[in-house]
Amino acid sequence: MYTSKIQSRRRFLKQTAFGLLSFASMPSWLPVAKGMEGMHGMPELPPRKASANFKPDVEFELLCQEVEIPVLAGQKTWVQKYSAKLLAGPENTIADIPNSFLGPVIRLQKGQKVRIHLRNLLSEDTITHWHGLHVPAEVDGHPVYAIGKGQTFVYEFEIVNRACMAIYHPHPHEATARQVYYGLAGGMIINDEEETALELPSGEYELPVVIQDKLFDTKNQLIYFPNMHENMFGFYGNRILVNGQPELQVDVATRAYRLRFLNGSTARIYKLAWDDGTPITVLGVDGGLLSEPENKPYVMLAPGERVDVWMDFSGRAIGSELVMRSLPFSGVLPRMGMGMMSGSHYGLPMGSDYALFTARISKKVSDSPKLPATLSKYKPYTADDVNNPGKPVPITITEGHMQMLLNGRTYAYNDIQDRERIPVNTIQLMEISHEHAGGHGMGGMGMGGRMGMGGMMSMAHPIHLHGQQYQVISRSVDSSRQSDYSTVNQGFINSGLKDTVLVMPGETVRIVKPFHDFKGLFMFHCHNLEHEDMGMMREFLVV
Prior knowledge:
mainly beta, Immunoglobulin-like
């Protein structure tokens, strides 16, 4: 059993990653040296440098480093943290989240040309992915571009996205979950003229809400050392942090706010709902604003997903409180999985009922913006737009003993199957589904004991596709799963552009995804990050 041990900064700096010291004496996020774990034949490339002919409107350094920071009362916690230094561009480009180990909120404008110097001050390899941005393959954060300690990788791209909230987080092969868990994550808000004209709540009235679950030892140190079952089902903590703080209370005025939610957990899924039954008014999702606001009794939020929420506290009494909770739901984990975990250290079982944060009414004001009836005039993709009608590109999920696969295979660099070759400047119909027993010649208990849909290993997977956002056009679920599905299905928002979609056991999700502008390798994977690090990841080769 792993026991965390705390060390002084001096001793920490003397340690190396080459196994000369006992692993038990190190913080659990210290790496094994590159080459000792193997990179599955992935080539080592020199770090990308700045281009002389690229003229940035915004330029900043983004540092990855290991620091101590107060999180809980008492002893400080070792974390991995992003920090940024603006070199050129608007002063509001970078804003730290107060009292948080999370990376700063980076605010950019559609049309800006951006140069980012990623400096790795960690004791291990890393690379950063711009989750939700439409950028060339060489600056998308593919694991092949991971850099070592002391190296710098230069990103250069133009912001072509419409207004949205994106994420930046690490994407090194087999270490994404650990680095995200220990703190390397941040939000990126893209603005455009259409959204600005709406005059939605901004400044102090636009609040990031990054939700994560963590597990701490008795000395306030993060524990992340997943065993076999925790890799299979996900690593779940016993404390909820919002914006890096436990039991967060936000003081609000009697007016409308804009809440920018991000699920920054490695595996936990949330069912967001206000404790007094107030509907959640949804403005947008991963890829930006909806055409018009939608009211939901609750919203499901899987790892990597975002939701943009309008909340009006007008008319509430000073001193009153409103609590955002995660409500009960079922069906996202296999029954055998939940049984295995029932006797472990988890204080918050998946699908249970618990508080996330509290909004306390502390100030009365008389002015407040009104909720717009129309938000965006974007044109949703439909099945009529695709270049492959009647022949969707399949993405199949296979689950089994110590295996979580996509398209029947584990990840290997440049291992492109025919179904994973996509012509550039096309719009593709795609179908994400769990493998049926006996389907595709890989079901049942063959191929290493894998089980198809309906098997006891079936669980929910948030599937993330790099590159441009897509439109969900249909969801259907096997009749045997309807009871569990009914506890979550009102919380799906299918009308906006997505880059991460939660696929429930027995569910088939059809999407329409564009592959415009850029050729190259683009990842798709499960955003249960333990699954990603197990190899539940593939590549599209756009040609």
